[in-house]
Amino acid sequence: MIYRILDGYKYELAEPVIVQTGILEQVCQLHSEELDHLYIRLHADGQLFINKRYAWDGASGIPDNKNVMRASLVHDALYQLMREGLLDREFREAADDELRQICLEDGVGKFSAWCIWKAVRLFAEKASLPEKKPRGQIVEI
What we know:
Elements: E1 3-6, E2 9-13, E3 17-20, H1 24-30, E4 35-36, E5 40-42, E6 47-50, E7 55-56, H2 66-83, H3 92-105, H4 110-123
Antiparallel strand pairs: 1-2, 2-7, 3-6, 4-5, 5-6
Helix pairs in contact: 2-3, 3-4
């Protein structure tokens, strides 16, 4: 995964990322079509497509390193879908579980992955709520 530092956000994808999520069996029961956003597409088959130029702020509360970057990207994208009303907030726990699973896949130890998961379960609910004012926009160059 290639990314670059960006004003207003910490990172911007330099290439698209595709991740097979574990939450879509549940989503498919509610949505027969894909969930589509300018930079994020969640297909009914479970694949999450995050387009080039998607910006996110990395992991909150812990150092950004290669073991948590993909997990923070996917988690932020899923939470953005919730904030924008495209994905029901009932999937928040599933998104948090996805964060933990990707952390484990990318080399985070079991205890550390659990701590990260527990922190988002306790403190990240507000991040899934609709925003009154968007955090910012990506400026196309």
